[in-house]
Write a structure and sequence with these properties.
about 250 residues, mainly beta, Immunoglobulin-like, 4-stranded mixed beta sheet, 3 helices, about 15% helix
């Protein structure tokens, strides 16, 4: 008599299914653009904890009417990513404010919903100034500070007080046609911030890439690495630029 049974899959195949299922269920943080003097509506779970993060900064305070959050506005702060965990049982929209170490104040309208907890990244349209970096920048002669920033970058290090953050808008470069620029990383300091750019030659001929191509309002120093006078067709070069965090003409060199 032929027995009918369940066909068993090898353990390795089962592990692949489990990994694929886990990867499919991953949800990326929701990026919320914010700016000073603006108010943003955000959906919050009123059945599960929510996490709010300001990338490159640290949340230091939450202000709201009494009782809006179950954890008394403390938000379980001090997370490794500088964010806070918030829990609410409200059913109607309410306003609260987020304050950060870098001086950002954001007004949010929380819209409670019965849903999974959310991870929200508040992305500021302005660079954040870190006081520790301000002290480091001003403790050296200006040219020495710029040189030290680039030396640290090439060594894979971060200057004292600088923190990685989502890239803000780049200065307005006047690049030749066929040359494309992409911001790969940015670090906020105090009065300065550092960008790492990829520059690609999309033409069929070589293009010169002198550092003066990247002269623009706010740019303080430029470094092409590894150095080359020209960029071959379809090739990509890495460019580091240091930019002022301050308005031009009002604060001296910084």
């Amino acid at each position: 008599m032929k027995r009918k049974g369940i066909r068993l899959l090898p353990l390795a195949v089962l592990c692949l299914f489990v990994r694929a299922e886990g990867a499919a269920s991953a949800t990326l943080p929701v990026k919320v653009p914010v700016s000073e003097d603006a108010q943003v509506r955000v959906a919050l779970s009123n059945t599960n904890p929510n996490m709010i993060v300001v990338p490159g900064d640290r949340i230091t305070g939450i202000d709201s009417a009494q009782g809006m959050f179950l954890n008394d506005n403390r938000g379980q702060s001090g997370r490794a990513n500088g964010g806070v965990v918030l829990m609410t049982a409200q059913t109607e929209p309410f306003t609260f404010f987020i304050r950060t170490e870098g001086g950002l104040v954001v007004s949010l309208i929380g819209v409670p919903q019965k849903r999974d907890g959310r991870v929200l990244h508040l992305v500021s349209d302005k660079p954040i100034r870190h006081q520790k970096a301000v002290h480091w920048e001003q403790s050296h002669p200006y040219v020495t500070t710029l040189t030290a920033i680039h030396k640290a970058a090439l060594a894979g290090l971060v200057p004292d007080g600088f923190k990685a953050a989502p890239a803000t808008a780049l200065p307005a470069f006047s690049l030749p046609g066929g040359m494309a620029v992409q911001s790969k990383k940015m670090w906020n300091g105090g009065n300065l911030r550092l960008f790492r750019l990829d520059i690609r030659n999309n033409t069929a001929f070589s293009l010169a890439i002198p550092e003066r191509l990247f002269q623009a309002s706010g740019v303080r120093s430029v470094m092409v690495f590894p150095y080359s006078a020209t960029l071959m067709p379809s090739a990509t070069a890495q460019v580091w630029i240091t930019v002022s965090n301050r308005e031009e003409g009002k604060h001296g060199q910084y």
